[in-house]
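Shipment paperwork, digital attachment
Item: protein structure file
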Amino acid sequence: MGLCSDNRISGGKVLSSHARRVVNRVSDALRIASVTLERSQSALGAFYRRMKARLGAAEAVTAMAHKLARLVYRLLKHGEGYVLQGMEDFERKFQERKVYALKKTASAMGFELTAKQAATAPVS
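Attachment content:
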């Protein structure tokens, strides 16, 4: 479907890694569906917006279409129902992963990360 990177490697060096240009109606439909997620208040919408901010619009559409293709494949192959994940839950899990990565990096550098304590009002 042309939704994943096509790594051109020579001598162990990646020469290019962009997605191939293909003519595929399913990939076109998934790309259109991924653009509609921009205003969605779901986990998929939050993922699309984060990818758009990080990669740009064109790459975010391809990344989101690739994610949708994996979801559709899994639904068709295993017959599992899709579990709708809310945006708040997705953002909370993303925040937890970010904090875990920061703590891991800090410990590798010999530092210890602690949460900021809320200041209490002074007694007068």
